[in-house]
Amino acid sequence: MPEKQNIEYKQSWRDDYLKWICGFANAHGGVIYIGIDDRGNVTGLDDYKKFMDDIPNKIVQQLGLVVDVDLHEDARGKKYIEIKVPQSTVPISYHAIYHYRSGSTKQELKGTALYNWLLKKSGNSWEDIAVPNATIDDLDMETVQSFLNRAITKDRIPASAADEDVYSLMKRLNLLTSDGKLTNAAILLFGKQIQALSPTTSFKIGRFGADSTDLLFQDVIETNLLTMVEKVMDKLKVRYLIRPISYKGIERMEPLEYPESALREAVLNAIIHKDYSSTWILLRVYEDRLHLWNPGILPEELSIEELKQEHSSYPRNRNIAGVFFKAGYVEAWGRGTNDIINAFLQAGLPEPVIEESQGGLSVVFLKDIYTEEYLRKLDINDRQVKALLHIKEYGSITNSEYQKLNDLKKTASTTELVDLYEKGLIKKIGTTGRGTKYIFSARNGR
């Protein structure tokens, strides 16, 4: 059996492995086998009797844990030890360091990650913490009323909620602590000045030139979360994005250069799922792409690939997500990422590139499928990339131009052009022979 999230194999015992036991206890529990190699083969232990005495004692003394330590024997008579580590209900440290098992790796929890984990272990999160001295006067009544109108219209709260006072509404939305104080989530969602909680609650947008060091201009959106998405979208449409003009019959069409519904969904996701104890949401706008990054990695229940498939919703900020749901901005079905991807594909644009990066979630939206960065990820060679970039610049390429561009003989050139054709990247126009040109395939939305 291979190693996985809750199983670890070690050929012999070292006290350093107490870190792994600590990591399992702080996560979801697990099993460590001593006397088995990484491939799951029993290698055996000669001094198993000593280990059977030492290991349980060291675990109790160093970690304060009582675990099951069992001795096993395979068909060849080789002994190995099984250490069953239960999930701990309290945080466990080893030499004052908190370890955590994530996937098949062990991590040391530090800084913001440790703070949030300790909150979670106590049954709380950053959004649940009381804001000292905050009162109803710190809430923006226009935002409160707008929320009420939307939520009642969407039939997600009863109409009678309109007759409640604001304090009762906050209680209905789980935005009060047990002793009746406004939480971080309440101020974030409805507050007049959410930057009082932290300057990093803002949403930063920047227009860049050739790379991330070339900042041309920027805006900082400073408003409560329920009005933030519209202000971000308005700023993008007015200052950062263009509307290419086209016609459908006599009707003038001016859609954004990126699917607007997908961008709105992505901005909403970033706002709702952000780790608000961390840094800013950043939206970098380049000539050929948008790069949206928000702090906070995916929940343990989801991977990047699972995020792109049918999946359940695991909101980082459950009360913030609940208010956005009641206001009708989102659904609670975990479909947002799928909707974003489908909107881009239907528009003939590449699937957005989603990655975990620098402690957050990164989404890159490509405006042009024929960027060098994108092309180099395809199953084609460098010469074919050069040819596609040539078509992008000049509109077409011939076999002879391909030969000259790549210093190839005609046979090799023909083979590589045919390969691009069969992959659906280009199509032929003109007669066979010298009159043949190759242009981008309509199958790629161009």
Q: What features would you highlight for this structure?
A:
Schlafen_AlbA_2_dom_sf; four-stranded mixed beta sheet; single chain; 446 residues; disordered C terminus; 16 strands; Heat Shock Protein 90; 19% strand; Transcriptional regulator; 35% helix; alpha+beta; WH_DNA-bd_sf; 3 domains; RecG_C_sf; Methyltransferase, Cobalt-precorrin-4 Transmethylase, Domain 2; six-stranded mixed beta sheet; flat; 15 helices; Arc Repressor Mutant, subunit A
Summed up, what is this model?
By secondary structure, the protein is an alpha+beta fold. The chain has 15 helices and 16 strands.
Task: Outline the secondary-structure elements.
Elements lengths: L6 E4 L7 H9 L3 E5 L13 H16 L4 E6 L5 E7 L12 E5 L2 E5 L1 H11 L19 H13 L12 H7 L11 H7 L12 E6 L6 E7 L3 H16 L5 E3 L2 E3 L6 H14 L7 E5 L3 E7 L8 H4 L10 H9 L9 H11 L6 E5 L2 E7 L5 H4 L6 H13 L4 H8 L3 H13 L3 E4 L7 E4 L6
Parallel strand pairs: 1-2, 7-11
Antiparallel strand pairs: 2-4, 3-4, 5-6, 7-8, 9-10, 11-12, 12-14, 13-14, 15-16
Helix pairs in contact: 7-8, 8-11, 14-15
Please tell me about this protein's structure:
This protein has helices spanning 18-26, 48-63, 111-121, 141-153, 166-172, 184-190, 225-240, 260-273, 304-307, 318-326, 336-346, 372-375, 382-394, 399-406, 410-422, and strands spanning 7-10, 30-34, 68-73, 79-85, 98-102, 105-109, 203-208, 215-221, 246-248, 251-253, 281-285, 289-295, 353-357, 360-366, 426-429, 437-440. With 446 residues, the protein is an alpha+beta fold. The protein contains 15 helices and 16 strands. It folds into three domains: 7-109, Schlafen, AAA domain (Methyltransferase, Cobalt-precorrin-4 Transmethylase, Domain 2, 2-Layer Sandwich); 123-367, Heat Shock Protein 90; 372-444, Winged helix-like DNA-binding domain superfamily/Winged helix DNA-binding domain (Arc Repressor Mutant, subunit A), CATH 1.10.10.10. The strands form five sheets. A six-stranded mixed sheet has the order 8-7-11-12-14-13, covered by helices on one side.
